[in-house]
Write a structure and sequence with these properties.
The chain is α+β, with helices and mostly antiparallel strands. Helices cover about 60% and strands about 5% of the residues. The protein is built from 15 helices and six strands. It has a six-stranded mixed beta sheet with strand order 1-2-5-4-3-6. α8 runs antiparallel to α9 and α11 crosses α12. The longest helix has about 35 residues. The radius of gyration is 21 Å and the shape is globular.
Length: about 350
């Protein structure tokens, strides 16, 4: 019997390498199995890489499925081109108003992939590096509808994903380590700091709603293809107290995604931490947030919803806290403070 997760990871690894596979494939797949593998890829937001991986081998699903997948790949390409262009337009638009900004993640991290257009698209993340105070004034002047969500400004554009304007590239919940991160970011972005920010982002999602393989693959591609001073990356990770999580992440990458030649820190395969990371990636993935939001919509009583969320975050903070005790404690405090604030503000013209 075929281990479907291993078969899925086999094709994902091929997609990450971008090279033809000349070895012997030791399994055959039924039509139903192929469909299950594609669904795994969809849930993990790596359908483009999965289809690329299948294309690197001699195996193929039934022709009608393959046609659908290739058409899906063309759609990803078209959307990525439109999103990349729109991101550049927003950066130029802000520059004309005297606001310095840059695209983060998305098309910028996709540049490290074998085929940048095959990375699954998401929101357009734009970091405002100078003059954040001018952004809302610009949006109001140009009559752009936006939503203020936890300090970020979200613009929903018809036909595209949301444009998210951020006042900082990344952040930590622990105020001490966050101050260190912001000090590093003031010195300008480098490949080393970019990679650290990806790991910070991944760890924050690990702590909150879970992560999927898309974010892990971003780290893999930078480790393999970016020019990095790995000792400098290690120094930054130590300074931000992220050694334990990063070493477990590198162990996960080495175990499931064929790793890379060298890591900034020695990969660790500690049973408890690795098992926890596996459960979050393969179990929670990107579905946990959707499930919680749906449960919240179905709740008729606000107090019950608040108590249910409080219990959920407390259990999650305790469960995941052993890999990042200080960050988890500060996260729970952050959730309490945030819940006491008014709801997100929506500005419409």
């Amino acid at each position: 019997m075929v281990d479907k997760r291993e078969a899925f990871l086999f094709f994902l690894r091929r997609g990450l390498s971008g090279k033809p596979y000349t070895g012997r494939v030791g399994f055959l797949l039924t039509r139903d199995a192929w469909q299950e593998l594609f669904e795994m890829a969809r849930v993990q937001a790596v359908t483009g890489l999965f289809v690329d991986g299948v294309a690197c081998t001699s195996l193929r699903p039934d022709w009608d499925l393959w046609e659908q997948w290739v058409a899906h790949l063309f759609y990803i390409e078209q959307m990525n081109e439109r999103i990349a262009k729109r991101g550049e337009e927003w950066v130029s638009r802000l520059a004309e108003a005297g606001i310095r900004a840059a695209v983060f993640k998305g098309s910028s991290v996709a540049a490290w992939y074998p085929n940048p257009l095959h990375r699954s698209f998401g929101d357009i993340d734009i970091v405002v590096e100078e003059d954040w105070g001018k952004v809302e004034e610009l949006l109001r002047t140009e009559k752009v509808s936006y939503q203020n969500e936890r300090g970020d400004l979200i613009v929903h554009e018809a036909g595209l994903t949301a444009v998210e304007l951020h006042p900082r590239r990344e952040y930590l919940y622990n105020p001490v380590t966050d101050a260190r991160l912001q000090a590093l970011l003031k010195g300008g972005i480098s490949n080393e700091l970019y990679l650290v920010c990806l790991i910070v982002h991944l760890r924050r999602h690990f702590l909150t709603y879970g992560i999927g393989l898309k974010q892990v693959c971003d780290v893999v591609m930078m480790l393999r293809n970016a020019r990095l001073d790995r000792e400098e990356v290690a120094r930054m990770l130590h300074r931000l107290r992220m050694e334990r999580f990063s070493q477990t992440l590198f162990g996960f990458i080495d175990m499931y995604l064929e790793g890379c030649v060298a890591y900034p820190l020695v990969p660790v395969f500690r049973d408890t931490d690795m098992d926890l990371l596996r459960k979050v990636v393969f179990g929670d993935g990107y579905l946990l947030k959707l499930a919680l939001e749906e449960r919240g919509r179905q709740s008729r009583f606000p107090l019950c919803r608040i108590m249910r969320h409080a219990w959920f975050w407390t259990k999650r903070g305790i469960r995941l806290g052993r890999m990042m005790p200080c960050e988890a404690g500060c996260f729970l405090l952050h959730q309490v403070v945030w819940r006491m604030k008014p709801a997100a503000c929506i500005h419409k013209d």
